[in-house]
Task: structure prediction
Amino acid sequence: MARPAPAPSGRIRGPFPPALCLGGLDPSGGAGLLRDVATLVALGVHPMALCTADTVQNGAGCLDIQAPNDPLPGLEALAPHLAGPWGVKLGLCALPPASLAALLARIEALAPMARIWDPILAPTAGVGLHSADRLQAMAATLLAPGGWVVSPNLPEAAALAGPAAATPRDLARPFLELGAAAVWLKGGHGQGPVLEDFWITADGVLGLGRARRLPGDRRGTGCTLAAAWLAWRLRGRSGPDAARAAARYLRAHWEPGIQPGGFGRPCFGPARIGRSRPAGDSAGVPPSDPPGSQQQDMSTR
Result:
């Protein structure tokens, strides 16, 4: 798929492929569906959204998570839009197993070209949602048809892999065995001043590069990364290259963190295309990796 070139004005040219976000509604806008939408719009992708978890939360934490109304009728209404290249992201999900299975079956029939699951155990602050057993049951339902990329952080991967898992391959193995096409293992919850992400498939482990840890924290980092990956994938990047581009996008927009009303943990501020972009970037678009670089550090870690 040809990658649209940035327009001279700094705006990204179309076409604008649709991306369907399934996730939790965070009314404060720091995470969940509203964060997904903000990220996708900034990256030139048309967002659509269906709620899979209703939350009561603000910038300080999540107080309650409940199942929403069945989103399947909403998906049926959106189905005519989901033609040509389109993608789907799944985040926080409180649907009953039968409702989730029906929703996923319909998505499978609509054949998205890109799929990513951000397997959320719980919001960073506040009430939890999934036990490890429930997360595994959800993974078995979601991943069985194949084609999904999973983007866990280290604690989410360890919840399935168990405490003995020490290597990226070990942490990714449960997802791959259940049918994941790839696991993007994010290193932000690791220790030390330097973090590293990995792209793991049945063929091996690819290091995505090391980066220094940024100061402070932000709400919605997992949502931002997964939504940005989906945007870059729909705009023509390979899976690993989209992950690298998503990480660069997050780092470029880390500052300024904002606290709406001066309250709560900081979240990402409104993104403007071209703001705080890395050197060599054009209209907020991180440069592609050189041809062949995706294989240069493939290992069997």
In short: The chain has one domain: 18-257+264-284. The first helix runs from residue 32 to 42.
